[in-house]
């Protein structure tokens, strides 16, 4: 088969298992010195975030640079280092990595034709108590306006680690989006979607850390569920290969509707319907917890089930 991976019967997901998955951000901090040591071109760039959590051996100290709270400088420095042949690994919270230095991403990386490995933390609203300044649901939509980006949205620390190792040796532009939410087990770190289950009444594409709750939400519905740990490039072949009814629901952990265009492009020759679930555009001014935001945006189990059921009926 091409375009997607298929779990065997003995691998079928059990999202209700009482498993505490490893934290994606903690795994990245533990892995970063090893990543840098493995490649003489690699250099880590931080903007204070994470600087106190990375244990840097003395022999790597000159390849871990903290520029302080200067996010435009962070990305500009990455562009300059990439022009000299280095491989920058750039890290901070999502809004500070994509929104604030957007012009530098466009010019110092894209226009210069160089690459970097960007690794965010905080997801859309992991830092719920910090409010709107630390919310990052617009990161993937913004990168969609730029050319040549690979975007990974791992749903488990094992997937994130595999994606980081695969991205480090290259010279392309890669974004790895880390979140505090996680699935109980890894479902796939490759570019192809994974078939979690098959059904006849439509297809639900669950992205990254939303897979387990999506499976729980549609447990008794006759739908195919696909898992995407990589969203750009979008796996159009995998979607088409598993399609039954041309009704598709996207469940994404960032701005709602972000990948609707990619589904429409994949099914351009078919009459189809698409529903894009995700974080709403309206600002929620009560901080609350990440779970409160999930419920408010309809991204908890009850909200996903309500939306999918209404759409398919």
Automatic annotation (TrEMBL):
Keyword Transferase in annotation: yes
Please name the InterPro entries in this protein's record.
PDH/Transketolase, THDP-binding, Transketo_C/PFOR_II, Transketolase-like_Pyr-bd
Q: What is its EC number?
A: 2.2.1.1
- UniProt KW keywords: Transferase
Q: Name one Pfam family in it.
A: Transket_pyr
Q: Which GO terms describe its molecular function?
A: magnesium ion binding; transketolase activity
Q: What class of enzyme is it?
A: transferase
Q: Which Gene3D superfamilies match?
A: 3.40.50.920, 3.40.50.970
What is the superkingdom listed in this entry's lineage? Bacteria
Q: Under which name does UniProt file this protein?
A: Transketolase
